[in-house]
């Protein structure tokens, strides 16, 4: 799978869907604007927005659940909502979990895919059926 980086501050949901769909960030970004999921000024995505983007790409959503730890995701492929630490505060971010690895669209990461599970805490996920 090809690495997809978000080019906007709030484009992590778009980048996660692009990664799974095998498309570019800009392709999914344009589709999200066309479908009125996002606006040209704000690319922030909720669970429902990510769900709509996935189904628009014909990616089957299997389940949506809250999660307490990465072990709860073992063996799944999912877009995961995480709490990520930055400058002593937490913020929400979307990543892809697949094959016990974290595919993160943040452009400043040194290691890709991520395996530093202790630095980010999952709070919920959208499991998909992906071939």
Secondary structure elements and pairings:
Blueprint: H1 12-21, H2 25-34, H3 47-56, E1 60-66, E2 78-86, E3 89-98, E4 101-103, E5 120-129
Antiparallel strand pairs: 1-5, 2-3, 2-5, 3-4
What does this structure look like?
- With 131 residues, the protein is α+β, with helices and mostly antiparallel strands.
- The chain has one domain (12-129): Cathepsin B, Chain A (Alpha-Beta Complex).
- It has helices spanning 12-21, 25-34, 47-56; strands spanning 60-66, 78-86, 89-98, 101-103, 120-129.
- A 5-stranded antiparallel beta sheet has the order 1-5-2-3-4, covered by helices on one side.
Write out key terms for the chains shown.
131 residues; alpha+beta; Cathepsin B, Chain A; five-stranded antiparallel β-sheet; 3 helices; 5 strands; globular
Tally of separate helices = 3
Number of domains: 1
Strand runs, count: 5
Please report the distance between the alpha carbons of the first and last residues: 12 Å
Strand content: 25-35%
The radius of gyration computed from the alpha-carbon positions, rounded to a whole number of angstroms, is: 14 Å
The multimeric state of the shown protein is single chain
Record the strand order, biggest sheet: 1-5-2-3-4
- CATH topology name, in short, is Cathepsin B, Chain A
| Low-confidence sequence ranges | none
Order of helices and strands: HHHEEEEE
Q: Structural class of the helix and strand makeup?
A: alpha+beta
Q: Per the principal axes of the C-alpha atoms, what is the gross shape?
A: globular
Helix content: 10-25%
Major sheet description: 5 strands, antiparallel
Q: Give the rounded overall mean pLDDT.
A: 88
CATH architecture: Alpha-Beta Complex
CATH top level assignment: Alpha Beta
